[in-house]
Specification:
Elements: H1 2-22, E1 31-32, H2 39-48, E2 53-61, E3 71-79, E4 82-89, E5 95-102, H3 109-118, E6 123-133, E7 136-146, E8 149-156, E9 161-162, H4 169-175
Antiparallel strand pairs: 1-2, 2-3, 3-4, 4-5, 5-6, 6-7, 7-8, 8-9
């Protein structure tokens, strides 16, 4: 009887776990006031995104297994009244990458067609359009799902699939 109760409880909670994967919240990355962001980072943000409205600054520390004192600053912002943009910076002001959230209908047709062919049984959840700056590279990180299985697929701007092992380390480190 105890086994049936445990199984029923697990089955009841499974949809909640799946729902939790849909929410992109940086729970472990604290929000900070703009006054705590280095001026060089603020200047770089203003240079690359002059008309952006910053909605939040975050500071992530200790994210690199090789460097305990690794730090990055994340600006979450709106452009032309649209939310879903972010940019990641080193304390030196160097822009690591920028990110744009995309609902499935905004993903370019070349990428959507490849996804539909390569992942026939999967549904497209959303995409992040990443621009990595060193070296400059544009990547679509597409979150797809088949029932409770959620995974990412990576494509270049021409719709060519990118093997995860060939991605810049910033993409793997900061987007998972």
């Amino acid at each position: 009887m105890k086994t049936y109760f445990t199984l029923a409880l697990l089955l009841a909670l499974l949809p909640l776990q799946s729902f939790a994967q849909d929410i992109d919240i940086d729970i472990d990355v604290p929000t900070i006031p703009e006054a705590e962001v280095p001026q060089v980072v603020l200047d770089t943000q203003a240079y690359f995104f002059p008309s952006a409205f910053i909605t939040e600054w975050q500071k992530e520390e200790g994210f690199d297994a090789n460097e305990d004192d690794a730090v990055r600053y994340i600006a979450k912002f709106e452009r032309d009244g649209k939310a879903g943009f972010s940019a990641s910076y080193l304390p030196s002001g160097e822009l690591i990458f920028q990110n744009q959230y995309m609902p499935p209908e905004n993903i370019p047709e070349t990428v959507r067609l490849k996804l539909q062919f390569e992942f026939k049984n999967f549904e497209i959840d959303h995409a992040n359009f990443l621009t990595v700056y060193s070296p400059k590279r544009e990547i679509y990180e597409v979150r797809i799902r088949e029932n409770a299985l959620v995974q990412q697929a990576y494509y270049d701007i021409n719709g060519n699939r990118i093997d995860k092992s060939t991605l810049p380390p910033e993409v793997i480190l900061f987007t998972q």
